[in-house]
Amino acid sequence: MKKVIRGGTVVNASESVRADVLIDGETIAGVGSFEGVDAELIDASGCYVLPGAIDNHTHLSMPFGGTTTADDYDTGTQAAAAGGTTCLVDFALQMEPNGLRSSLEEWMGRAAGAAHVDYGFHMAITNADAATIADMAAIVGEGVASFKVFLAYPNVLMVTDDQFLAVLERARDLDALTMVHCENGFAIQHLVQKALAAGEVDPIYHALTRPEEMEAEATGRALRLAGFAARRCSSCTSPAGSRPRRSWALAHTAPPPTARPASSTSSTRSTTCAGRTSRARASSARHPCATPPTSPTSGMPCASITSRSSRPTTARSTTSRSASASETSRRSRTGWPRSSIGCRCCGSTACATGASR
User: Fold this and answer.
1) Which of 79, 146, 111 has the alpha carbon at shortest distance from 278?
2) SS3 334
3) Torsion of CA 125, 183, 353, 118, to 10 degrees
4) Do 212 and 283 contact (CB within 8 A), yes or no?
């Protein structure tokens, strides 16, 4: 059954305009004037009509520390739909000793028949042994476009540096995204044990045992390992052979400041179609970076990083070479890795709008 949303102000990435929205099944078939079309009429007079938002960081029914998050796929996605979020990407955790596939199936079972909006998954790897690394290709084949690792929470979620590097290399080969929780887990564990021994158990000590230096150290380490993994890929190409594959990491300590519109996916869905469930488009897990890359010593997360050495080399003028040398010198003073980490779109370390793909 076709539907026409009439009388509202349509807001998208390029403009705001009074227009009708024609919906055919689950697809927005057109934006314009649809007088005389045989369709159910929805009056949106005085309202804004927007594409559905995507929440790309959720934890529904997630077990952690002996507790489970309060919202499940029923209540959580009802709240999402009420707020105009029509797609979410939830974190599925590898539950040791189980592999990736069984964990993904468990999370898919939680969502099946319960979700009120579209959904997809990030796959969190907590035991990056050889069998897990080998299983990553099958998970990508299921439609999962991103993996997450934790550099915090020893003996629970944390991977070691060798495991982290193995995940980066395999994700690079699969053209998948690697996200990172950047904190130095062992150093924080040391601070927590000291606080407990001293009886410092008030809520403020949760923050004080996790100083920004612990985040900065792990962020810098993640940057360097991601850059190394990218440089080590000398012959990897995409299926089309048009560009080198890259290893990248998302220093993932805070959600983006704004929601991304559903038009960033391969198809647009109406906010009125909240009763359907499906896995989200693979591209829903990839969003433009929200903050510019910053020095690892500053404690600020870098939202999208890549080794500039993976870019095609081009001739540069004497002026640009001089500027590059000056920039390299600056990074040496501020603790930046020498591999020249920059924004994926333009290579600039000051770019705040570069796309992560």
Assistant:
1) 111
2) helix
3) 40
4) no
